[in-house]
Structure formats: C-alpha cells, structure tokens
Design brief:
Layout: H1 2-24, H2 35-46, H3 50-67, H4 71-91, H5 97-113
C-alpha cells in the first residue's frame, strides 16, 4: 500500500508542479477557449490576483507532495482546488474530465491514507478543557 501511496503522491505532485510552473512562467500558450469556459477563465483573470494565488498554492502543495512533507496539510489545502478542477471539467470543458477525476480521486486517496492525521480534528473540545 505504501508503494501505491508514493506513486499517487508523486504523480499528483508532478501534475500540480508542471501545471503551476507552466502558467506562472508563461511556458505554454493558452489554448483557444470557447463558450462558458472562456467566460469563466476571463472572470478569474479579471480579478488580477486569483490565477497567481491559485498557481502559487498549487506549487507549494506540489512541493509538499513531491518531498513527502506535510502531505495531510497539503491535501486539505488542495482539496477545494481539486474539487473545482473536477466540476469545471464536468460542467464547462468535458475534454479534461479524466484529469479532474484523477485529481479528486488521488487527493481522496491521500486523505484516506493519512486519515490518522485528521483524527484530532474530530474530537469535541469543551470550554472547561481549554
């Protein structure tokens, strides 16, 4: 199981690493977008900061996955991004749906594998214990 964990962790890390570097450093030409996906993408760019924040977050999480450090934390931070990737591809750009499915399933697997790290989050804290 540890081999599968390492493979999934490294693949997910590499995917986010290459994606974030390619966008942050303008290494690839953006494909021609159409329809609602184009409107969605233009809205993100119009904010002026969101794409950079998103890609920097992906870069930090990718490095955590690749180096095997703070993986549970990186998995929690990347979870909403992974879910959004899935839904964007499900609703707006179906050609990327396999990647969206992989990202969500891989992150869910990492979360499940590291489930012991999340146990303290589900323990009730009472005021008199603090």
């Amino acid at each position: 199981m540890k081999i599968v964990y390492t493979i999934v962790r490294v693949l997910l890390g590499a995917l986010f690493l290459f994606s974030s570097i390619a966008v942050l450093f303008n290494l690839v030409q953006e494909p021609e977008l159409t329809g609602n996906f184009k409107v969605f993408n233009e809205g993100l760019k119009a904010s002026g900061y969101f794409i950079t924040l998103l890609k920097l977050t992906e870069l930090v999480c990718a490095l955590a996955f690749l180096f095997g450090r703070f993986v549970p934390l990186a998995s929690v931070i990347i979870a909403p991004i992974a879910i959004n990737i899935f839904f964007v591809h499900l609703m707006l750009a179906q050609d990327g749906l396999p990647i969206g499915i992989f990202v969500v399933l891989a992150n869910a697997f990492l979360g499940y594998y590291n489930r012991s790290a999340f146990k303290p989050l589900f323990v009730p804290v009472y005021e008199n214990e603090v």
